Amino acid sequence: MAAESKASKFYAKEMGRESVSSKHFGFGVRHVQMLCMCFCMIALFVARSSLGVAILAMTDTTRRNDSNVEIYEWDKKTQGLILSSFFWGYMTMQIPAGILAKKYGGKPILLVALLTNAMLCVLLPTVAHFGGWIMVCVCRVLMGLTQACLFPASHTLLGRWLPINERTTFTGVVYSGSTIGTIIAMPVSGLLAETVLGWKLIFYSISALMFATAALWYWFAASSPTEHYLMSEDEKFYIEMGLYSNGGGEVKRPIPWKEIFKTMPVWAIVSAHVGSAVSFTLFFVDLPTYLERAMQISLKNSAILSALPFVGMWLGSVSSATICEKIYNRGLLSVTACRKIFTSIAMFGSGAGMILLAFLGPDHKNIAIVTLVAVLSLSGFTSAGFMVNHLDLSPHFAGVLLSLTNFAGSVGSVLMPVATSLILKNDPSDISRWRMVFLLTSALVITTNIVYVIFGSSKRKDWDDSDFKDRRKSNLDEILSLKASMEKEEEARNH
């Protein structure tokens, strides 16, 4: 057993608190921390997802004669480049973001992201006026660079704050903020685009939200329980016991890159993450365009309807996390079985839904909207699936693992808007071209999930232990000693 685990048990015995019941902490500082993380997720996703609606307003030729609103002549290919530009920066910074979060903690990293995105949003209308679409891309790349830290930093914080028995539920709550942000952004952006200021008000409002969230994050969040000024000794002890019982304990040590890359379950998560990211990006970026141009729904209504599927995704995320944790805590299924089942519900379900969407047209608006809600609702089940799997494999290096898998997913996110624009060929009203988009995405999602089901695992890896190198060295010494002993015996027999 690791030295820190022995120390923690001794500490528990000395304090007379070897068994600390979770009922003593029905609401504690860790819940405040999770709430702050959720708010942070919401704000950054509002900034991320608003452009899908904003770009339709920025190119809305019906307001060309409105002196208060500047309209740009950007074709579908240009719009695809702008929409994908966020993911260029997001992909580039993924792995460095995971390392930075591990080294400096989640609080300062996310604070910088909030403040930077707030400044970029308030400047974007001016930048667009003077620099055109190229400078808009630059702004979005910078937003992507800073938002790359969001999931690695959040996973690092979750690994430091949550005992294993609370991990799935609160991870689902925190990451549901990404869906809530999208739910808020799309209809609100549509309403703001209809005002006198038009699409510019979208970015000014988001900037104000980001500054407010940064203040909340600065005052009420911390990188670890030990650093939080409101943390009680009892609750800190309860959290530490939950971490130690899983072989946890925050010990600074080098990242075991070699062992990570040799771990097949990590590559299984990479596969699932790529399929999920591509599917999510399709709806995240192009759903407003699909509803307005292909389904022939007005901009205002399409922005509102675009949020409905993400409401379903939020419900799927929260409910699946709660159900999964109850199943595991009652011993009905292993963690590995839970992760594979909930991931498969998400991936196979959404893949089947996209096949149905491929054969629906403007005459089937209601069926298409119901199908979209079902697809994204099922997609939310990944919160209890592969998205928590990093924490199962390695609580210490969960942020680093997520940065690796998210990097792979981001490659798909970068390519998806560009691929969609090439398939649509500047004609997003052509249903036959949307059919090709949906069928190809469905095939990718189903294939990547099959890989995850075959190779995935939730067994905690040896290289996550703080004494892994010592044990490996000890095993090597034992092997060498045994070999030397056998050689001596062989030599003695020969003589």
Question: How would you summarize the topology of this molecule?
Answer:
Layout: H1 3-15, H2 29-49, H3 51-58, H4 76-92, H5 94-104, H6 106-147, H7 150-161, H8 167-193, H9 200-220, H10 233-244, H11 257-261, H12 264-294, H13 299-329, H14 335-357, H15 365-379, H16 386-393, H17 398-424, H18 431-455, H19 468-494
Notes on the protein architecture:
The protein is an all-alpha fold. It contains 19 helices and no strands. The chain starts with a helix and ends with a helix.
What is the alpha-carbon Rg in Å? 25 Å
Number of strands: 0
State the low-pLDDT regions, or none: 1-24, 245-249
Q: How many angstroms does the end-to-end distance come to?
A: 44 Å
Task: Please bin the fraction of helical residues.
Answer: over 70%
Residue share in β-strands:
under 5%
Quaternary structure = single chain
Mean pLDDT: 85
Overall 3D form: globular
Let me know the largest β-sheet: none
Structural class: mainly alpha
Could you spell the SSE succession in H and E letters? HHHHHHHHHHHHHHHHHHH
The count of helical stretches stands at: 19
